[in-house]
Specification:
211 residues, alpha+beta, Alpha-Beta Plaits, five-stranded antiparallel β-sheet, four-stranded antiparallel β-sheet, 8 helices, flat
Length: 211
């Protein structure tokens, strides 16, 4: 399926989703540590309405750089999830709301989080290998993601003190994707390509089994 066909399918699905009212939904928030701390604080304060399923601190090494970000998956009342999305977006984070419609109607759901350049590389590689997948949801960060030169750890401290600040607050755009596939073999190919490109990926089926 081409990107254009995929986007048309997404628009049709969005129309169906908007017509369905649901009490509880899943969501994924991604961004720098401070942004996700803000979301976590509000979620913990509202623990009777929302549950934190997991939180990850991710470091991606690329060339000489290490890019660090946090992500969190939650489940709870739709109204409260909407409040959390506002907090996340106001702080420059990315936020995906996953409605029950997708969980019920898509055979395999996977969500991916990585710097934008790695996501673009993933999409290109998946299309070259003719993996059948649909891009269901997408969001990007607008705030900074911390990055540094990890090789400086071996340098003398006075040199690190000069070099590190140049990269501590580097603008790195994070992209979050919700991807669906119809066959298990395509899901495995998606996982392989993601691992090859240093992309954080979670099989939504595993989340449902643990929840």
């Amino acid at each position: 399926m081409t990107i254009i066909e995929s986007k048309i399918k997404v628009l049709r699905q969005a129309a169906r989703v908007s017509s369905m009212s649901s009490g509880k939904i899943w969501c994924v928030a991604a961004g720098n540590e401070d942004t996700i701390n803000s979301v976590a604080y509000e979620a913990i304060a509202s623990k009777d309405k929302v549950k934190i399923l997991f939180r990850e601190h991710v470091a991606v090494k690329e060339a000489f750089f290490r890019k660090r970000f946090d992500l969190m998956m939650l489940y709870g009342d739709e109204a409260k999830i909407r409040d959390l999305s506002i907090i996340c977006k106001e702080n420059g984070g990315a936020f995906l709301k996953i409605a029950p419609y997708y969980v019920k109607n898509e055979p395999y759901l996977l969500f991916l989080v990585a710097p934008e350049n790695l996501i673009k590389r993933f999409v290109g590689e998946a299309e070259k290998k003719k993996v059948n997948f649909n891009l269901i949801l997408e969001d990007k960060t607008t705030g900074f993601i911390e990055a540094d030169v990890y090789l400086t750890a071996r340098l003398p401290k006075f040199i690190r003190d000069i070099i590190d600040p140049l990269f501590k607050v580097t603008d790195v755009v994070l992209t979050t994707l919700l991807v669906s596939v119809s066959r298990g073999e395509d899901a495995e190919k998606i996982k392989e390509i993601s691992a090859h490109n240093n992309i954080f990926i979670v099989d939504f089926k595993n989340i449902l089994e643990e929840d």
